[in-house]
Specification:
By secondary structure, the chain is an alpha+beta fold. About 30% of the residues lie in helices and about 15% in strands.
Amino acid sequence: MHVRRRQLLLGAAAGFAGTAVHAQGTINELPRNETLIAENPEGTVKNAGWFNIWAINAGGQSNGLHQLAMDTLWFIDPEKGIDGVWENALASEKPIYDAGFTQMTVKLRRGIHWSDGVEFTADDVVYTIRSHLNTAGLRWSAPVQVNVAEVSAPDRDTVVFTLKKPNSRFHSLFTVRWNAMWMMPKHVFEKQAEPGKFDFNPPVSLSAYTLLNFDPNGQWFIWQRRADWQRTSIGRWGRPGPRYIAYVDPGPPDKRVIAQLNHQLDIIHDTTPEGMFTLARQAKHSRGWFKGFPYAHPDPTLPAVILNNQLEMFKNRDVRWALALLIDIKAVSMASYRGAATISAIGVPPTGVYPATYHAKLEGWLRDFEIDTGKSKVRPYDPDAGAAIVAMLRQSMGDQIPSDPALVAASFGRGWWKPNPQAATELLERAGYGKRGSQWYMPDGKPFSIRITVEGEARPVMTRAGSMIAQQWRQFGIDASTDVAQGTLTDRRGAGDFQAMIAWSVETWGGHPDLSFFLDSWHSQYVAPPGHPQPPRNWQRWTNPELDQIIEQIRGIGFDDPQGIALGLEYLKLAAREMPTIPLMSYNVFTVMDETYWTGYPNAETAPYTDPVPNWANTRFMMVKLKPTQ
């Protein structure tokens, strides 16, 4: 049989430093029709030889390590899943809790082996937990030490966790959304004096791929399908299609587009809206999550205007609501995503199961919702905001824009808040603010000035959203501007070193309606005093007794209890009334897939079995669906 081979010049036309690759003799020739090339969104990994994912270091995670080599007990897919959203991976069934949620029992799947031939057993799970119990500073040391009193293995297939306090969501620690706590190979790490200082190079794999080679400068990593892929938890879904998978740093967005036009980059992790539009016009084999506009995959995260609620100027909800009523979401959508945004007026992203579970159920409540400004009562919700964005786009894009109302809602969102400067004026005046000339002043007589922190070129879509919102506030008379925190946004967010920020403090499972993934972290017990680091994810530092009650009720019920949805709806109503953050939209990722060499990618219309974004650990489900083109 003649196998078509094509040299992987991870660079010639695409700018991947191909000359250095061949000079080192590390890639040589791989069969192109057996090789998937994906963008590593981490870019060039600084400490390329570090594969100890349990120790915080400069090594990579999204270079294929956690997508292809790691495994843990369970997965929840952000989309539909191969066979439902819940996946028993290393575990053979769902977690088993006692009545008081103080003990969790795990039954393990038999026949799973590490890539060096050693069988995976309960001893590996116990070793992983005890390593984190006994070692400070590992990636999951804090949640393990806070929750676990004891861990034991009654037999080779059973692990029992005894918890320090009731926790009905303890299994979330071992349930992949984007990642989770991965299992460690006991037989490898027990030989190391200090697990946090071991580079784990080469990594022993528990999933379907092993490391073949990598660039010591961190520009590319190549993984090879295991010969015994059947002895992994993903193996029961069939043989993964690609024999080789390369994660590469293709450079900035324009070079990613060029690389895919030349069929040297099968999956672009993310590009600009303009880059997506170029590929849609010029590359007949390239496609996004949606076949047409808006193309992008809406991730289960919720970019918002995060207001630092510990600052005096944002403590009054009248002020927070006034700022929301000064935003024209249509203009923000056009400025940020060129219209390809999926908007959300409520505090949960409009993706996965949430549009049906929460957005649709709250539509009537939102239409009837009123704000009393002290001088008038207004109904701020505009149910046609998403449709209005579509109407604007259709003027220039015609039939490229969907007309089916259900598809419009799924792609662009439902409603949002109506711009209402008069109501904003009345709310600010009731809060003690006043306007002199064209400028607003705070109750202490100082100018009302807001700096919106944005990430700059690292996240241009969100930066453009922040710039448009600052412009809208300025037009009203607020001294608003953006503050670029290129490379420092994460640190400043955790430190509370900002007034307002375009970021997200809401991250959800996507495929499961439970909101505890982010909501539990919003309990007041975790809110840090001003000037102290804030634990994830309540970056707005909002506290509310009603919110604490909702969270505590959720803690007392099972993960699949339908009461969790009712409590989720109560949280959303409370957040709408209080407006601690101003929700904007889902984080839409312009992942672009080239079907020249591979078919079977996930998509919104016919195959929503997982999201296509290649840095998610759920990528492993994509691999078993991909088939080479004929």
